[in-house]
Amino acid sequence: MFSLLRPRLNCRPFTFRSTQTRELFNNFFGRKQSVPALYKPKKERWITPTMLLVGFIPFFTFGLGTWQMRRLQWKINLIDELKEKLELPPLALPRKINLAVIPEFVWRKVAVKGKFDHSRVMLIGPRVREGLTGVNVVTPLMREDGTTILVDRGFITSDVAKSMSFSCPEAEVEVFGMIRLSQPRNTFTPDNRPGEGQWYWTDIDGMAEYAGGERANVQPVYIEEIFEGHAGEASNNISHGIPVGRAPTVNLRNSHLSYVITWYSLSALTAFMFLRLLANRKNSPVKPMPRYR
């Protein structure tokens, strides 16, 4: 009876008549979506800082390798030129030496006669020869014409240098050697201290001034005495305190070939890396879809 009196309710599911209304309702009352409804992938840019850097390195290292190749050829030509100079007969130095042309005669053999001035001996060190630590003996040589030049007589051990018991000939001597320039000084080489008798590098002008300078007719010309004996004779001379000169060979360092190999290898490696990056960009031109949690 009551069921007959109760009006019948027609409950139909609620629907939105438009999509915009549904989205508006979801924004206010519904749960936000964790993933976008529509994802539009973005294309990867070809020009990026990484691509520019990786693309620049192969050209830069290739240029360094080419530069070192030219330096290698220059060093080879220089060594050949110096070897040819050493094969020439010894020169006789004039009384007044033109200092402006000295660089053109570097590594040329010379023969000079005179007497050593042992009162102005200079010991340059430390030096190492055949595992022995010592110094080089530089002594002014007073020539027959009244001028004086500097002669590097060669190596003596530290013990002999401390006792100053090395050979000091008083008679006239004939010296065979080669013309050299001042030694290049690096950042870690200390300053020479002539007043304390400490010499660390070959400063020809400073050494000539110490030996008397222009007032004593000392010319800033530096000769390295040559020793052409065998190793046994050199060891015997060193043990008896006789300075041993340098060998008549060119000992310039030439490591440019290793630099050429290094730079060209880096150029090839970085070029391969750059091509791989280009291939990856071509195979996947769009950015990967981001992950939302």
How do the strands and helices of this protein lay out in sequence?
Layout (H helix, E strand, L loop, with lengths): L1 H4 L13 H10 L20 H38 L22 E8 L5 E8 L2 E12 L4 E10 H6 L9 E8 L23 H7 L7 E8 L5 H9 L16 H28 L10
Parallel strand pairs: 4-6
Antiparallel strand pairs: 1-3, 1-5, 2-3, 3-4, 5-6
Write up this protein.
This protein is α+β, with helices and mostly antiparallel strands and 293 residues long. The chain is 35% helix and 18% strand. A hairpin with a 4-residue loop joins strand 3 and strand 4.
| Main pleated-sheet profile | 5 strands, mixed, barrel
Oligomer: single chain
Question: What is the overall silhouette?
Answer: elongated
Distance between the termini: 57 Å
What is the average per-residue confidence, as pLDDT, rounded to a whole number? 83
Radius of gyration: 41 Å
Helix content: 25-40%
Beta-strand content bin = 15-25%
DSSP strand tally: 6
State the low-pLDDT regions, or none: none
